[in-house]
């Protein structure tokens, strides 16, 4: 009986260990759930899936309406990332729904969502919650009569050649994408005021979004405002890729930039690039090593922090010249740029303001393509004690002189007054 109880317990412990393998020390997603409308997508998009598997990802393919679908069990997530290649699904199977997908992202996991002209309300709803709005016309696709692909044979100019990429080596890699990306699908718009959503691939100025089967009316979105592929980095640093084309990831487009584009952007989505961590945050008085419980006004202090970037397999020093620290109470009293030793260490020194209260060391670092760093450390600042002031303050010498001269004058006056006949 004891052995029968021990075996399930051991399996449960191993299961929980597997579910906790994703951590800040190893941020690259490894277990991916791929939802498809048809398992034939495994063949039609095999090159993309082979790329993921070659980089160590474990893919589990499931039909999007599988009645046994679940993202978590016993309060632990079964997967590190989710790939939704099922644009026409009306309802997910099992316990999976729109709220479950959004909770998955809110828990810090990553998402790739591909739509097309048959995108369901479910897929559109998930994209909308992520800050991306697909064209409201269900029949609309992106059309470009100038920038269409030469290989297109249907004459509707819905297969377009796009090369308006975001200018970021972190997101798309250092190697320039020379060939245009062939795109057939629907466009979307993003809020230009949003700092979380970025257009990675945009349409050309001659493109517009409309139905090729009906008489052209005023398109809802036109030109370079049409986003073809966008990425989202949430405040918890979870990353999402939203594409208006499932065909973008397929094997059919040879001699184009599709393979390089989806490969490089997938590295970013799954945190192989642009993932930062900060460790060893320290502060102390100059010429001391121990971190004090509080500072005194006008103390000279030193502050340091180590920042590293994940390379996909290991942590490497992050080198930049725009990292700053604030010494903050209601507003920043001190704002200093940090120097670096090019080995991951950032440091500076400054004098504590002549104001006492509860301050914070704050580092708020946000840079295009990188995960954000938000660090704060609270420390009180006290005034001088009564026995810590200087015995004689140089600035008060005139007052000292006035006091002693007054006493001397009074003494002389007294002598003269008493003894003068």
Automatic annotation (TrEMBL):
Belongs to the DDOST 48 kDa subunit family. Pathway: Protein modification; protein glycosylation. This is Dolichyl-diphosphooligosaccharide--protein glycosyltransferase 48 kDa subunit. Keywords: Endoplasmic reticulum, Membrane, Signal, Transmembrane, Transmembrane helix. It is a single-pass type I membrane protein. Residues 283-421 form the OST48 middle domain. The chain crosses the membrane at residues 397-419. It comes from the Eukaryota. The keyword Transmembrane applies. It is found in: Endoplasmic reticulum membrane; Membrane.
